[in-house]
């Protein structure tokens, strides 16, 4: 097995044990708006959306799940 393959397997295993996926569909044009906001804050779309979710959960009183 090549180093590249080993790294891919390790990454996949790590991700399987540490993250969950949520498919998010948005109307055409909204992704670009979210990307612009993420860029403004210097983060990826994923980080930006996670920050928004964390903020909302904190407001709802469920910030420490």
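^ Assign residues to that structure.
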């Amino acid at each position: 097995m090549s180093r590249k393959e080993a790294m891919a397997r390790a990454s996949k295993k790590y991700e399987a044990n540490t993250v969950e996926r949520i498919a998010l569909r948005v109307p055409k044009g909204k992704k670009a708006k979210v990307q612009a906001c993420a860029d403004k804050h210097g983060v990826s779309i994923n980080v930006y959306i996670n920050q928004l979710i964390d903020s909302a959960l904190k407001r709802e009183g469920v910030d420490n799940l």
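The two ends are 39 Å apart (CA to CA).
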